[in-house]
Amino acid sequence: MARRHYAFTTLLVVAVAVACLSFTDAKLTVNYYKKTCPRMEKIISEAVTSKQLSNPTTAAGTLRVFFHDCFVSGCDASTFISSNHFNKAERDADINLSLPGDAFDLITRVKSTLELECPGIVSCSDILALATRDLISMVGGPFYTVRLGRKDSLTSTASSTDGHLPLTNQTITEIIGVFQKNGFTVKELVALTGAHTIGFSHCKEYINRIHNYKHGGPNAFDPSMEPRYAKGLQAACAKWKEDPTIATFNDIMTPGKFDNLYFKNLERGLGLLATDQALFEDKRTKPIMQLYASNQTAFFNDFVYAMEKLSRFGVKTGRKGEVRRRCDAFNQIST
Ligand SMILES: *[C@@H]1O[C@H](CO)[C@@H](O)[C@H](O)[C@H]1NC(C)=O
Ligand SMILES: *[C@@H]1O[C@H](CO)[C@@H](O)[C@H](O)[C@H]1NC(C)=O
Ligand SMILES: *[C@@H]1O[C@H](CO)[C@@H](O)[C@H](O)[C@H]1NC(C)=O
């Protein structure tokens, strides 16, 4: 009898597993939380608005966190996990200096509110995807549809970032390679780089362009830069070694507005990073950069397409993930 019962249980488990498998294959949907947490979008958009108004770099920071999260093992909130004694988490990989606190604060705040409204329902990865979309449109960028139903990751390791993120000291060929490895085209790479229209970077990421360029002395700067701009950056970064948090905007003309000025600036030597300028010189990327500089609608259309693709990248559904109760910790502490 006991054995029979066991067999029956096994069958049930198999049936459930098959059911889950088909659920896993289910696509993300726009109305995922319609019944379980109907006020979710409103709660997110109110929190986003107040955070962005009080802290204007939130949009740029959140967009960067979203990109980082998605490109490393999929859009699964693995970036939010804190390191512990047993595990060095993704957010503490080398590149983490540039992962800003505003975004983490915002998502944590939204999550706390949602846990009161509808506990255990809305995933951190869906919150991040929606908050990013809301912030982009709030600062003047295009609005796009975000499908929902992502689950949060069950792992997060610093080593998983290796080779998955573009670095500011890479060549264009290397950066194209990073995007291609994740299934993104050169055009999508350029469109996503347009996010620098609201971005900022730390001095260490461009100090080689403005200080002792090609060993030409302390004040030597990259001649492709507009001279007044280069001198302004030298002044801004004078104490960069003492204070590594000093940052400047990638789009110096309209840093708070999502527009195509980032592309136009590059035509005038007003690019911040060597990789920004190089994208404008490389024959694979230059025609796309020029198109976006001359036509904001073309940029917005391609950006929306690339963001929708990015938002679906490597998502986990069904039992491949969980809805975390806190965004910075797995529900079950594992060793
Ligand atoms: C990453 O951030 C942590 C603190 O959150 C810091 O201790 C660590 O040194 C940082 N890593 C690098 C390489 O900057
Ligand atoms: C580029 O930057 C990364 C991280 O900051 C560093 O580990 C790497 O050595 C650098 N590569 C070159 C060629 O400078
Ligand atoms: C700008 O791009 C859009 C979208 O590709 C296109 O429909 C429009 O005709 C372009 N405008 C100009 C002036 O080329």
Structure description:
α7 packs across α13 and α10 packs across α12. The longest helix has 24 residues. This protein starts with a helix and ends in a 23-residue tail after the last helix. It is globular, with a radius of gyration of 22 Å. The protein folds into 2 domains: about 150 residues, Peroxidase, domain 1; about 140 residues, Peroxidase, domain 2. Strands 1-2 form a two-stranded antiparallel sheet. It is mainly alpha-helical and about 325 residues long. It has 13 helices and 2 strands; from the N terminus they run αααααααβααβαααα. The chain binds 2-acetamido-2-deoxy-beta-D-glucopyranose (3 copies). One of its GO terms (biological process) is response to oxidative stress. Its cofactor is Ca(2+); heme b. GO terms for molecular function: heme binding; lactoperoxidase activity; metal ion binding.
Topology summary:
Blueprint (H helix, E strand, L loop, with lengths): L1 H24 L14 H15 L3 H14 L29 H17 L6 H15 L33 H10 L4 H8 L6 E3 L4 H4 L16 H10 L10 E3 L11 H7 L6 H8 L4 H9 L1 H17 L23
Antiparallel strand pairs: 1-2
Bound molecules: 2-acetamido-2-deoxy-beta-D-glucopyranose (NAG) (3 copies).
One 2-acetamido-2-deoxy-beta-D-glucopyranose binds next to loops.
